[in-house]
Structures are given as structure tokens and as C-alpha cells.
Amino acid sequence: MDWKNLPGGGGGIEDRRGGGGVPGGGIAVGGVGGLIIALIAMFFGIDPGAILGGGDGAQTQPPSQSQPQAQGQEGAATDEDYQFMDRLLTSTNQVWGNVFQQAGRTYTPARLVLYTRGTQGGCGVASSASGPFYCPLDNKVYIDTNFFAMMDRQLGGGGDFAYSYVIAHEVGHHVQNELGIADQVERKQRSARTEAEANSYSVRLELQADCFAGVWGNRVEEQASITQADIQEAVSTAQAIGDDNLQRQQAGRVVPDSFTHGSSQQRAKWFTTGFKTGDPNKCDTFNQNYNQL
Ligand SMILES: [Zn+2]
User: Fold this and answer.
1) How far is the centre of ligand 1, averaged over its atoms, from the C-alpha of 151 (Å)?
2) Residue 218, exposed/middle/buried by CB under 10 A (0-12, 13-18, 19+)?
3) Would you tell me how many other CB atoms lie within 10 Å of the CB of residue 281?
4) What per-residue confidence (pLDDT) applies to 290?
5) What is the DSSP letter of 240?
6) How many angstroms separate the CA atoms of 151 and 129, rounded?
7) By C-alpha distance, which of 150, 154, 281, 168 is closest to 234?
8) What's the CA-to-centroid distance between 183 and ligand 1, angstroms?
9) Which of these, 25, 37, 139, lies nearest to 93 by C-alpha position?
10) Which InterPro entries does the entry link to (predicted)?
């Protein structure tokens, strides 16, 4: 993958790295593997119930009193991390802007907050342990730049396109928000009769975000010189963060009713569907029999 061929400079990045952060926010990094993996599973993207309800401790810590760079700086940094995020955000926003325009709809670009340790956001405090997530309340993707190094260690593999998949997945949640899908899912979850039913909506939402990430990959395949090896990288990541794989690692057993993001096989399948077709209409995970997702 040659991400430097992607367009950059589209704006929307807030650089809060090196800010005051949240006390103790960084302690989990490099620490207990199982914990990190659990948190990756939980926060690898939006979990509307958990985030809006402030369900997890990592999200509800009190904010730091001193955050000198809380407002962030835009367009200041020239380091590789920043350049990478800038191009990924610009490119994903551009692709989805085009898709929306062709459908006669308006697209408001997603924004992205780069931080280290912790930062205050529209959905509460983001900490290093949160993993990347999208906050539908302020339309921002939150990423701790150390996450990718953690991904390499914990998930046994990284690479530019694996990282790109992560960001494109989060922007996929923004697209769902723009389309009103996230709201509908939240309403359905509230009226769900069982936890398994509520979880099933979450799985559909997550698999659709995977598919949307694939759509983006399709649209930049030539521009970013994406190779078969790159695609394999993303598919491996999608498999590594499948609920079955994470549960097997954490608890030694798999409980499908408790899935919130989908199995390894499902995540790989939907990313691939998006990548092969480049067609967001093929990402309709909501009108499929749940057992056949
Ligand atoms: Zn997600």
C-alpha cells in the first residue's frame, strides 16, 4: 500500500498528542494482554449502548483538570503518524462525500482526534485503553496513536492497510450516523426483549462498518496501490478481532449470543464484500437472515 498517494490536507484532524491527558489513562498499554484485547473488542468502534450510556469505566473517568491542548491543533504536525491519519481521513471523507453526492444526499465530513494517554470527548473520556472509537455525539473518531503499536503486539500483526481498515471502519460508523442508521439501531436496541436480540443489532451495525471499510478500500485500490498482501492484512485483522476469537482467547469458550461485533468469519466476509463490490448497497447487513450473515 502506498498511502502517501492518497489525498491529504482535507482538515478535520485535532492533534491533542502530548496534552495533559487523563491521570492513569496510559497504564494499561503493554500491560495485561487479555484486558487490552477485551477493551479492543469492546471499543473497536461504536457500541451505541455502551458509549451513550457511559457503560464502561474507561469512558467515565473524570476528566483531567489540566489539558493544555484540549482544543487541539489543526494542521500543525508533519510527522508520519499525523500524515497517515490526515490522508486516511481526507480519503475516506472524499470517497463517502462522492457516494453521498451521487445519491443526492449531503455528507458532513467526519473529524478525527489524535491523542495520547487520554482526552475529553463528546462521549466522555477517551483513554488509551479505549481503543479507537467513533463518537456519534460530536462526529469524531478518537484514536490514540499508540494503538497501532499495541495492535501489532496484541493481534499479532499490523501494517498500513490493517491500520487503514481500522480508521475506515470508524469512519464507516460516521457514515451510519449520517444515514440515520445508528439512531435506528439504538432505538431497536432499547426496545429489544433480550440481550441477545440487542446484541444482534450491534453485530449488524459492526459488520456493516466492516463492509463500508471495504468499500473505501475498493475505491482507492489503484490510487493507493493496494496489493493482495494488503487485503490479506486487513482480513487477518478482521479475523483477529472477531468476537469468537477474542472470547476464545479471554475465556476459553465462545458464546455467540453475546457477540457484539460478529465472528472472525463474518468480519472477514463483510470487509471482503465491501472491497470486492465497492458498492455500499451490498452492505445491507440489516435485511439478511441473522444466521446467514
Ligand atoms: Zn465498530
Assistant:
1) 15
2) middle
3) 9
4) 93
5) H
6) 12
7) 168
8) 15
9) 139
10) Uncharacterised_pept_Zn_put
Q: What is the pLDDT of residue 127?
A: 82
Which residues place a Cβ less than 5 A from the ion ligand 1?
45, 206, 209
Please, what are the averages of pLDDT over each run of 10 residues along the chain (293 residues)? 96 85 39 40 39 30 40 66 95 97 96 92 84 92 87 78 94 96 92 94 95 98 96 90 85 88 94 97 94 93
Which grid cell sits at 49?
449502548
Q: What is the model's pLDDT at position 27?
A: 34
The answer to whether residues 204 and 231 touch, using CB atoms and an 8 Å cutoff, is no
- Cα separation, 260 vs 201, in Å, equals 8
What is the whole-number distance in angstroms between the Cα of residue 21 and the centre of ligand 1? 24
> From start to end of the chain, where are the E strands?
13-16, 111-115, 118-121, 124-127, 133-135, 140-144
Domain range list for the chain: 3-292
Identify which of 283, 233, 258, 285 has the alpha carbon closest to the alpha carbon of residue 3: 233
Contacts of 136 (CB under 8 A, 6+ apart): 46, 48, 51, 52, 123, 173, 174, 177, 182
Ligand 1 center from residue 209 Cα (angstroms): 6
Sequence letter at residue 228: Q
Q: So what's the pLDDT on residue 152?
A: 81
| CA contacts within 13 A on the Cβ side of 10 | 21
The Å distance, Cα 66 to ligand 1 centre, comes to: 30
Cell of 135: 463518537
- How many angstroms separate the alpha carbon of residue 133 from the centre of ligand 1? 7
Q: What is the pLDDT of residue 73?
A: 60
Beta-bridge partner residues of 114:
15, 143
C-alpha 205 – ligand 1 centre gap (Å)? 8
